[in-house]
Amino acid sequence: MTDLSLQVMSVPGRLGVTARFADGELVLELAPTPETLHHGVVRASVLSFAVDAVAGILLDQDPETWTFTSDMSVRMRPVPAPDRIDAVTTVLRRGRRSATCRVELTSADGTPVATGAVGFVTLPRRDGDPPKPVLSPEDAPLVFRGLGRLSRPLRQEAGIVVLDAAEGVVEVPVTPAIRNPAGTLQGAMVALLAESATEELVAARFGVRAVVADLDLRYLGQAKDGPVRTAARLLGDTPDAPVEVELTDTTTGTVTTLVYARAVVLPEVRRP
């Protein structure tokens, strides 16, 4: 699919996601690792990869069109990471130029972990565009196999730099390791940048342990050059107030993504 980076050195490709295809249904399996957690909870941005990928693979089967994610919402339970998370999708609407899917994410025993909604738009390929990969649901298990795992925490692997924690200003260079096949910043890495801005702002201003549980992303433009930098605004006076995050490609000055996020404060860890 357009946004699926599954090269050996790709950061999104090493998030611990594999696939199975059984009884006509594609299921993506996420095996959480310490590198993809924050305070013991799976990052919402990591879940966004599974949401985007499982829906996108199903929809993106035309080699002559690009299928771009236009918007995505993720709502997760801020609970300790289970051993495995399964993601399955339902197509809610499929038109000639756009489509919308719902994705349910559950632990291996069926306990709800998160839910997501994702929208797509399709555009025809143009002369000079890079080759368009097409991945069928049946072939997904083979492609996801043997991609390896992250060796450092996700934010470090992506190259995110904190410029002003209290204001939620972070940035990332658009390197090959976090680009999608179309040559732009991969969707889950966009989510990770907004998530990082939110958690930095909340931690710096309130001094609490918090994780981002809600993400609403509107993808407005492609980030090809970078670095991509955030500007954040807390819409309230408490750590669980909504945070508005704008992502801008600093080379072009283009606002590429508008995000609304919400953090949840975790209980204090009692030490003996």
Give your account of this protein's structure.
A hairpin with a 4-residue loop joins strand 13 and strand 14. Helix 1 (44-59) packs antiparallel against helix 4. The mean pLDDT is 92. The protein has helices at 44-59, 140-143, 154-158, 187-206; strands at residues 17-22, 25-30, 37-38, 41-42, 65-76, 85-94, 98-107, 112-124, 161-164, 169-172, 210-219, 228-234, 243-249, 254-265. It has a single domain (12-265), classed as Roll (Thiol Ester Dehydrase, Chain A). It has 272 residues and is an alpha+beta fold. It is 17% helix and 39% strand. The strands form two sheets. The chain has a twelve-stranded antiparallel beta sheet. It has a two-stranded antiparallel sheet with strand order 3-4. The chain contains four helices and 14 strands.
Order of helices and strands: EEEEHEEEEHHEEHEEEE
Mean pLDDT: 92
Number of helices: 4
Low-confidence stretches: none
Determine the structural class based on helices, strands and strand pairing: alpha+beta
Strand order of the largest sheet: 1-2-6-7-8-5-11-14-13-12-10-9
- For the record, the count of structural domains works out to 1
Specify the biggest β-sheet. 12 strands, antiparallel
Helix-strand blueprint:
Blueprint: E1 17-22, E2 25-30, E3 37-38, E4 41-42, H1 44-59, E5 65-76, E6 85-94, E7 98-107, E8 112-124, H2 140-143, H3 154-158, E9 161-164, E10 169-172, H4 187-206, E11 210-219, E12 228-234, E13 243-249, E14 254-265
Antiparallel strand pairs: 1-2, 2-6, 3-4, 5-8, 5-11, 6-7, 7-8, 9-10, 10-12, 11-14, 12-13, 13-14
Helix pairs in contact: 1-4
